[in-house]
Amino acid sequence: MxxxxxxxxxxxxxxxxLEKSYGExxxxxxxxxxxxxGSVFALLGSNGAxxxxxxxxxxxxxxxxxxxxxxxxxxxxxxxxxVRESFSLTGQFAAVDEILSGRENLxxxxxxxxLPDPGAIADGLLERxxxxxxxxxxxxxxxxxxxxRLDIAMSxxxxxxxxxxxxPTTGLDPEARVEVWETVRGLAGRGTTxxxxxxxxxxxxxxxxxxxxxxxxxxxxNGTLAELKQLLPPAEVEYVEKQPSLEDVFFAVVGDANHDRxxxx
Length: 265
Known about the structure:
This protein is of the alpha/beta class. It has helices at 51-58, 80-86, 102-112, 118-128, 144-155, 174-189, 201-207, 225-229, 246-264; strands at residues 13-22, 25-35, 40-44, 66-71, 74-75, 87-90, 162-166, 193-198, 210-215, 218-223, 235-237, 240-242. A six-stranded mixed β-sheet has the order 6-7-8-3-9-10, sandwiched between helices. The chain has a four-stranded antiparallel β-sheet with strand order 2-1-4-5, covered by helices on one side. It has a two-stranded antiparallel ribbon with strand order 11-12. The relative contact order is 0.16.
C-alpha cells in the first residue's frame, strides 16, 4: 500500500471548473470530471482538444488559471509534493535509457526511489510485463511495444495508486498497441487507477470503464460506453438493428457541439 493512499471511498481524481489559457487561446474552459479508484477512465479527444493540458495540470507540471484538481485526496495547487508521491506519468515517448538493459533501467529507477532490494523489484516487474527473456538485452534492441511496456513497468516502481497514460500507444503498430492494451487491463485488475488520454476511439472502447469526450476545452459527454451509445438510436441495416459504435457517438456529439457554437456566433 502506498504511503499516501487516501480513503478508498473518495474518487482518485476530482476536477472542478478547470480553466487554462495560453494568451488569447482558451484551452480548458471549465472541465469537470471524477475518476473512481481502481478504474480506467479515458479522456478522448482530437489533437489540440486539451487532453495533455489536463494531465500536465494533474501532474503539477502546469498551473491552472481557475478551478480545482485533486489527486488521491491532495490538491495539486496547495499539496503538490503529496500529489507527486501519489501518481506516475507515462507519456507518448518511452522515457527509457537505450544504452542500458531493460533490467538495468528498472534497477536504476528503484535505486533512485531508495527502495529496498532493487534487483528483486526489477525481476518481479520483468516477469509481470512478460519481459524476463529480454531483461538482459539493451533497450535499443526492443520493439516499440516492448519499450512502452518497460516504460509502464518503470512508472509502477513504488506502487503509485494513480497512473496517467498520456496517449500511450501513439506511434505504435497495431500489434504493439494490443500489447499495451493488455498491460493497461492488468493494471486496473490490480487496483491501480488509470487516467488514459487518447485520440484512438477503439482504444477507449477496449479499455475504459468510463469515457469523457473533451472538445474545444469542455467535457461534452461523460459516461460508460453503454451510456454513450444510448445517445444515438440504433441504425437499421437491412432490417437488422446495428448498435452505434463509439466512433458514431464521437462524431455525432463533436458535430453537435460545433453546430451549437456556430449557431450562437
